[in-house]
Design goal:
It is built from 3 helices and 6 strands. A hairpin with a 6-residue loop joins strand 1 and strand 2. It starts with a helix and ends in a 15-residue tail after the last strand. The C terminus is likely disordered. It is of the alpha+beta class. Strands 2-1-6-5-4-3 form a 6-stranded mixed sheet. It is globular, with a radius of gyration of 16 Å.
């Protein structure tokens, strides 16, 4: 599998775990050997796997866990590190997110997630009418 596709697959696994509120799957997508950080919208920075996973446990188990979908994901691969920028679509609006991954034992694992408010993603313009 090309590296860009593998990173996007790992990013999809992160959002699938989030959308399905699956803490075990969320735990699986985060790195274990590399230090991790996370900045949820409106939160201060979380450092360390224990703090990050405790935050996900609270979010995923909470009654107000958001419905979420990922759109427009673009991956950049730089050796054993990769970055994905994407839009998060929520019932309440849109966020833009940065997800940073590292290759651990041959698999892409997330080491940083940060999301913040953003305008709606731009939609592709209609192709010009060439049939006149």
């Amino acid at each position: 599998m090309p590296e860009h596709a593998a990173v996007l697959f790992a990013n999809d696994a992160f959002y699938l775990a989030f959308a399905s509120r699956d803490l075990a799957a969320m735990d699986e997508v985060w790195a274990r050997e590399t230090p991790v950080t996370c900045i949820h919208p409106g939160w201060g920075p979380l450092t360390g796997r224990d703090a990050v996973m405790e935050s996900w446990q609270a979010i995923l188990a909470g009654p107000s866990a958001p419905n979420i979908a990922c759109q427009n994901a673009e991956a950049r691969v730089l050796g054993d590190i990769a970055c994905v920028i994407c839009h998060e679509v929520l019932d309440q609006g849109f966020l833009v997110a940065t997800n940073i991954f590292v290759r651990e034992r041959g698999q892409w694992k997330i080491i940083h997630h940060q999301a913040g408010a953003a305008p709606p993603p731009e939609t592709e313009a209609e192709p010009p009418d060439t049939m006149q």
